Amino acid sequence: MDLRNVRTQFLDRKMKYACSYDPKLAFSEAEALRVPGGVRVVPRRRFEGGSGLSLGNFFHVLDAISIVGVDDRKHNCPVGAIESIEETVLFRENGVVASIKGRMSINTEDRASIDVTYQGVLRFRGDATTYFGTGRPLEGGAWIVPLFETTDTRYRWLSEQTCIAFGTWNASRVPGAQTRNVTGRLDVYSTG
């Protein structure tokens, strides 16, 4: 059975920009755990001068307050702060790909709560595990599938759409420390 026509139909589906988010975390290279097949890290909240920094924001790159979704209806755009985030990254041994899994909570400026679980892959130019213990920045692309959950009717549309996020995931070494600051820059698209 030839499935090329079915696959072509899938590729013709619409995608619409929904929102963006920029998580900000850090991980200690000293706490990186060697596991079978790679190295696991658990990024956490960044600390600077004893105080915690923002975990990042959700926003619309054009400062829009609403967007037109793949269903051609107008929807509120989630704008607010990332209140909590838990993430695990498995850097595969001798590979350019890492798997990422996590969850976060967002509080919007209009007082809605949105929970997001996600998983995906990070792709680097070389074996990411060889960057540990060096000052070289770890820079890669990110392909993530977020699942949004909320009881707030203004943002329920996110729960009813399949979304995908594309962007970057960078971990730069803090001078004089075994810590890497992680900065993500991701754009979320809803698909039909």
Keywords:
eight-stranded antiparallel β-barrel, mainly beta, 58% strand, Porin
Structural overview:
The structure is a single chain. The chain is mostly beta strands and 192 residues long. The protein has a single domain (14-191), classed as Porin (Beta Barrel), CATH 2.40.160. Helices cover 6% and strands 58% of the residues. The chain contains two helices and 15 strands. It has an eight-stranded antiparallel barrel. A two-stranded antiparallel ribbon has the order 5-6. It has a two-stranded antiparallel ribbon with strand order 8-9. A hairpin with a 5-residue loop joins strand 14 and strand 15 (179-191). The protein is elongated.
SSE blueprint:
Blueprint: H1 4-11, E1 15-28, E2 33-35, E3 38-41, E4 44-45, E5 47-48, E6 51-52, E7 56-59, E8 66-68, E9 74-76, E10 80-92, E11 97-108, E12 113-124, E13 138-149, H2 156-159, E14 162-173, E15 179-191
Antiparallel strand pairs: 1-4, 1-7, 1-15, 2-3, 3-10, 5-6, 7-10, 8-9, 10-11, 11-12, 12-13, 13-14, 14-15
Gross CATH architecture: Beta Barrel
Number of helices: 2
> Roughly what percent helix?
under 10%
- Average pLDDT confidence is 86
| Name of the level-1 CATH class | Mainly Beta
As a whole number of angstroms, the C-alpha radius of gyration is 18 Å
Class derived from helix and strand content = mainly beta
Distance between the termini: 26 Å
Number of separate strands: 15
Large-scale geometry:
elongated
User: Which segments are poorly predicted (pLDDT under 50) over 5 or more consecutive residues?
Assistant: 7-11
Largest beta-sheet characterization? 8 strands, antiparallel, barrel
- Could you tell me the strand content as a percent range? over 45%
Strand order of the largest sheet: 1-7-10-11-12-13-14-15
